[in-house]
Amino acid sequence: MMRSSTVANSIFIISGFLVVAYNEHFEFASHHGIQWTTALDSLPDRSDGNVRLLFVADPQLKRSSNQPLLLGSFMKWDADRYLTKYFRLAMSAVKPHVVIFMGDFVGEDNVANGDEFLSYADRFKAMFSVPDGVLPIFIAGDKDLGGGDQERAVKMERAEQFENYFSPINEIIEYKHIRFYKIDFLPYLHAIPEPKLDTKLQKLLTKFNSMPSEGETRVLLSHHAISDIMLHRHITIMQTLHPSYAFSGHSHDSGFVVHDLQKLMKFFNNIMNKPKQGNDVDPRGNIKMDEYKVPTCNYATGVPNTAYGVASIGTDGELHYALLWLPSRFRQLRCYMFYLIAVGLYTLWKWCRRRRQYR
Ligand SMILES: [Zn+2]
Known about the structure:
By secondary structure, the protein is of the alpha/beta class.
């Protein structure tokens, strides 16, 4: 007859194997893989001139130095592994023409020195490598540019490093029938109207607008949402650039907002007590812009629902958008923890029982 401890050991080994197999493979294959297929089936075919975009928002790579050594190293390793695994799966499933990194690849505020920034940047590029033939677009996030309370000199150094290592912070990128406007809203965030600042923005927008363009569909890309800057700037951007779509990250959650220029101008004129002189309507007609807030792809940000965004833009400018949801790593890690606690308690119970027998 088989001893009870042998039976228990066999149960623990088999259940351990099942927990790992389910978490690391079967949960995605049986649930999320099906959601991805359904989401991608809702998009138009990749051919016929449709341009496929993959959005990677707020990967926020962790550093281990601010956590207890072993736990910090494990969390960094696990988060990096999770990000790399699902990014590769998303690349293979979506087969994008363009991959748009929405900013905050750095996971901490106050990255102290330039060398640390470069080590983050190297790690990021190794994890999120994009094959030849696919266009990567890099947006700068607030954490990439030095965090909230860094000194001005540090922020300038970080901006220069970002531009040297990735691409200009503000720029226009043309891809087939699409014109992407990359604009960093960080300097304008919650900043009261100020002639110097507003003139700087207007100059940038006028320069962008004066450039000859092949792209008929205009897409605004920024780390912060356009509604995070003051309303008069929001109106100026829509009036000058006429974007049809906008994408942002930073909030970590998914969101969708329709911006109606006419309503925004009416609201603005009302709160500013401006007399109605027909100035609440843009002379070129009303402009509407759909804004999509892309959720973070990294569970280590603490958000329960993480995803990659995917969009398809046809030659007629029509956009289809979907989210590829990711398995909850927190739930998976809880499963591992409960399993290890059960194994630990059983081992302790066995050890106590053996000690009693030998007394
Ligand atoms: Zn951010």
